[in-house]
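FIELD: query
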Amino acid sequence: MCGIAGLCGCRRDGQKSIEKMTDRLTHRGPDARGIWRSSDDMVLLGHRRLSIRDLSEKGAQPMVSHSERYAICYNGEIYNSDDLARKLVEKGLVDKFRGTSDTEVLLEGIEHLGLSETLKFCKGMFALAVYDMETHEICLARDRIGEKPLYYGFVNGAFAFASEIGAFKEIEGFKNRICEEVLNIYFCHGYIPAPYTIYQDIYKLEPGTILKVTAPFSYFNPLTRENEETILGVQTSGGAYSFETYYDITEVAKKGRENIFKGSEVEAADELERRLRASIKGQLVSDVPIGAFLSAGIDSSTIVSLMQQESSENVRTFTIGMEDPKYNEAEVAKEIAKHLGTDHTELYITEDDAKKVIPSIAHMFGEPFADSSQIPTYLVSKMTREHVTVSLSGDGGDELFCGYRSYESVRRIWGKMHSIPAALRGPAGKLLLKTGTAKGQVAKDKARLLQAKSPEDLYRIQYEMAPHAMDVAKSKVMLPYKYSLSDKDVLSEVNHDIMLMDMKMYHPDDILVKVDRCGMAVSLESRIPMLDPDVVEFAWSLPTELLLDPKTGTGKQVLRNVLYRYVPRELVDRPKKGFSIPVGKWLRDTELRQWAEDMLSPEKIKREGYLNPEVVSKVWKDFAVDKGDWQPLIWYILMFEEWLAD
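FIELD: result
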């Protein structure tokens, strides 16, 4: 795993800026730094290396192709690079490779097969930039689901890109203003979804997308695209840019629903296990030590079970425990590890351990990000890195196999609501809120839910209806984003529709961001077998009855059926405690309360000018006396303020 950065058309001292950008990414690649510049000094590529495969200099980056036409800087892993290498040799396109790195194979594939076709062939996680020295075109690309990050935009007239948004601040003369228009989305969800970022003129490249930019790399605004199809745009002063979607999760989901799996429950588990084992086998390829995160949950337990089947040695597993039994799953994880025979390591963390992470969060994420499970995720990553360089995780199971309890709540709530005609529900909900008839937070929440047009819209409203979320920021602009555009029936089945909503925004912009930043902060590469395209495509073909227990509504049935082959039901069929910490309790009862009150000082908030001090004060006062469910919004505000102070 690595960190990449680049500058194109830089009018200032590009060399100094690219060096500082790569220095900012040292944690992503502590083993080496490389910088390449074009002969006309128009393009600079920077790379920080975390050596995973081909630890020799033959795997160093930035790398130039055999023909010396292309240069690449790349972050990620291509798990089927050996298959791609054989294809290139068998077609007579490459005689032999200099080393054994997947970077070299990827680069030669791009030159001989084209970027889009190569990426469609590859299985892996990646963010890359490749420069064509003949056409003076640079292409940025990101993996299918969004495991690896890639930011791009303009700073002082130069086109720039990097693995983390913090690297842009290292460019000489950086003065991009805070994009206040995204704050209302942030305060609804606790993260900023792609393509937006916290800064004006800097964007996230969306998953499954290729961006091509041709010299002279003049300014363009990607938000003015008319649609999500491949289109060509002309820059403001020469050159051109285009976007291509080479992998669209919506189209994958639609295709799956059009080709429903017809086999039995046992056959579904057989097929899922086959695909997961193939994915895990490919992801076990490494020239450095490898292990896995293990909680007491279905997802990580399944991955570890199948890893143990594919490995010739005992798998190394890692768990953190909490002192508070309400949040501790370490004891059950230890039982599962013992049953599977893994080489297990656990670490119990204290409240002080967790609190010490808070001051580093803003720097770690580079922009406001407020999923409080970021703290235990960082701590387990830190502990794991002391033993291995690569760790597999079970992320993706909830979104692909209908695992979240909120999915069942949508079905239950909609079942009570839909008997009331929509023509009555919507106006009634608005009237209750407008007149103040809905007293108390529970009543107000119900009034908002009454306005839902569909189960999908109901799911969206649940995640946007945090009290005062839309009033915290001074800006009243609400930019369009993926949840608000996914409020209708797309897949003809409610559960699959809301899973698709999560796969388009929550999963790539929250879960995968958290996993990447927390792992990379300690130079740990995280791999996610469930996001293999063969697994993803099969998951979308599964009928609802193979995902949900018809009696209890419990999800992930097909995944559970795979796990039960290796771990007794009684070990894993327990209430899930979640990977979380008691943030609310700490903020009310410990020394963190003083920190929070200082961060939320009305004078400070007013002086900064981004938030409404009266609203922030009301939220804090209600939270402090445990009046209403304010914890998520309070944490969102605190993480924004911590980021401002970084």
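FIELD: remark
The longest strand covers residues 70-78.
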